[in-house]
Amino acid sequence: MPFQKVVTALAAVALFGFTGAGPFHDEQSSREVVVYKTARCECCNGWIEHMKKAGYTVVAHNLTAVDRLAKQKELGVPSTLNSCHTSVVDGYIVQGHVPASDVDRLLKERPEVTGIAVYHMPAGSPGMESETPEPYEVIAFSPDTTWVFATH
After folding, report:
1. Fewer beta carbons within 10 angstroms: which end of the chain, N or C?
2. Would you tell me the crossing angle of helices 42-53 and 100-109 to the nearest 10 degrees?
3. Cβ 66 vs Cβ 95: under 8 Å
4. Cα–Cα dist 46/99, whole Å
5. Residue 97 CB: number of other CB atoms within 10 A?
6. Can you say how many angstroms the Cα of residue 139 is from the centroid of all Cα atoms in its chain?
7. What predicted TM-score, i.e. pTM, was given to this entire model?
8. What gap in Å lies between CA 11 and CA 125, rounded to an integer?
9. Contacts with 12 (C-beta within 8 Å, 6 or more apart), sequence order
């Protein structure tokens, strides 16, 4: 094989990995959750523990309530989907008490959305454990639309 073809082949392997399935993607990179919350919110801490038990690495930033709302707005979360914490996972926004299984699905399916959210803090959602859980929806959102991603 001519030298130029060998170099080109090696460069392709270095760039795309050995699978030939496109650019190399480190699965661990998508397992980091960056959380913006207020310092004293116990249900946020409960959700963080839920995510850690599901295998995610969590980096939490404590903000004032005003700064947390500003961060939520900056990240593109509609005010109609307000909750007590806002997170970023592999480029997606995860707003509120979303179950880890739905985050897993989001990262697997990779829909063209800004993120997913659970409005408010429903009883029985992760971090809001309750003996009397209430049904709730996980909403997918983008600047121009929302739709039901999951029901619990």
Report:
1. N
2. 60
3. no
4. 12
5. 28
6. 13
7. 0.80
8. 47
9. none
The residue behind tokens 């009397």 is 132
Structure tokens at 140: 């997918």
Residue 126 · residue 104 · CB < 8 Å: no
Query: Who's near 115: CB < 8 A, 6+ residues apart?
Result: 75, 76, 77, 92, 93, 94, 95, 106, 140, 141
For 94-103, what is each residue's pLDDT tens digit?
999 999 999 9
Strands 115-117 and 145-151: unpaired
Residues 6 or more apart whose CB falls under 8 angstroms from that of 14 comprise none
- Residue environment code for 33-66, b if the CB has 16+ CB neighbours within 10 A, otherwise e: bebbbeeebebbbbbbebbeeeebebebeebeee
Write down the residue that tokens 């500003």 correspond to: 70
- The rounded radius of gyration (Å) of the Cα atoms in the chain is 19
SS3 102: helix
